[in-house]
Amino acid sequence: MRDDDKPSSAPPRPARHRAARAAAVLAAACLTAAGCGGDGGPGQARPHPGGAASASSSRPASPGPSAKPSAGGPSPAPTSGGPLPRGPLTGTTVVIDPGHNTRNREHTREISGQVDIGTGRKECDTTGTATESGYAEAEFTLDVARRLRTLLEGRGAKVVLTQDGDRPFGPCVDERARIGNEARADAVVSVHADGAAAGDRGFHVILPAAVRAGGADTARIVAPSRDLGERIAGHFVRATGSSPSNYVGGRTGLDTREDLGGLNLSTVPKVFVECGNMRDPKDAALLMSADWRQRAALGIAEGVGSYLKR
Length: 310
Ligand code: ZN
Fold this sequence. Notes:
The chain is an alpha/beta fold. It has one domain: Aminopeptidase, CATH 3.40.630.40. The protein is built from 8 helices and 11 strands. A hairpin with a 4-residue loop joins strand 3 and strand 4. The longest helix has 19 residues. The protein is globular and about 40 Å long. The site of zinc ion has 8 residues, from loops.
């Protein structure tokens, strides 16, 4: 929607003058990314973001890190956990929201039920998109979420997942938001991959718009969420070499929306990360690479860490 967002990217720290850095960052991104050349119309793409988040489960996580270039290879499985190591994020709580659910497609009736998102009503959840070869967005989001959990827990953060492959469907977007709120999370990241047209490439971070309607009031989270999102975008570029989206956000890597229940209903800083476009063959190849997913998780973890330590 709006293009007034500044490019993010920037190194984390001083959250101020990012605007100036933005251009430099994007330029840097173009030097390293494979997709700078693209172009894609200003596009519209309001593709999918279905969900925002919920169910819970926290758990020491798992392996993640391994990185084989498999396509949709085994996702790091939850492990048993022990006490968290002490680290720079000790004392913080991060909620990770893996978008959709691999079993949503078996529960179309349940997920099509309407829930209140403040500005209106919307489906409980959606199935998400998939690559041409059938690698589901929900598989991708859960894999990245688990890798991210491992990285954040390794730095001492308490991590809660809204779903960990342990629910038959959903959770619904309102519950996903509620999980972050009830955890009093210091930061919430909803992980997604987009379903736009082939040729549309790159990642973007979705920020909550200022919304006050029904049970939604984002006044207190708009600014901190932008800070969180800008830091994640900057680190995502560095870790993955991907370019900001060429079809949404005016190549800033940032977009602001008021139609996502997971953001509208959040009372804690929260963003969505659309890691790439599953419907574009080149982006799909990246999303299906376990090695790339590890880098994506690292970029998000670095951004979250920078935000929490600000
Ligand atoms: Zn999604």
